[in-house]
Amino acid sequence: MQLLLIRHGETVRVESDTGVADPELTERGRRQADLLAAWLARHERLDHLVVSPLRRARETVAPIAERFAIEPEVLHELAEFDSNSSSYIPMEEMKATRHPRLSALVEGRWQDLGGQVEPEAFRRTILDTLGRVTEAHPGETVAVICHGAVINAYLGDVIGTPRLLWFEPRYTSIHRVLISRHGIRSVETLNECPHLAPAGRRPEHGGQEPLSY
Hints:
Elements: E1 2-7, E2 14-15, H1 27-43, E3 48-51, H2 55-68, E4 73-74, E5 87-88, H3 91-97, H4 100-107, H5 119-136, E6 141-146, H6 148-159, E7 167-168, E8 174-179, E9 185-192, E10 209-210
Parallel strand pairs: 1-6, 3-4, 3-6
Antiparallel strand pairs: 1-8, 2-5, 7-10, 8-9
């Protein structure tokens, strides 16, 4: 089977004084989601859709679900590691401002993130959840619309890296994993973004960006 791990589109910055931040897509993020849906409809056969419960993921999957006439399966276990945080700061802003939260992420200082994260427990949840998805859909193509750390956790286990966060998935990027009948997994592409290539330019495959600043 083929597993397509897809990151959500560009997301607004949110700081909430009253509860959990669950940001929506920016206008650019909505355009990215529409372009992604159109490209998938032209080039891919999708048998099943899975989505995180968070708003940015659900807004990204909506145009895909409409084009393929598939009702997405919502899996709460695929929420981002900081889904209970009262703030959401986009990665590009953290990199531009050298935000201390980013350095904590890059250096793996999870204790400095407010005690929300147990990296190995998070990784195990992602692996178990996506393992059940792949077992339930042998021979099919399943798209999973989720988050950067979710993608890092799963792909990191496939390639054998001990780091939870080791590269930066781009907005609406596609990451392909092939899984044999015997459960052997192989990464086919990373950060595939043909739908975002400028008109007349050949889209590039792969090209992962290290998580650094």
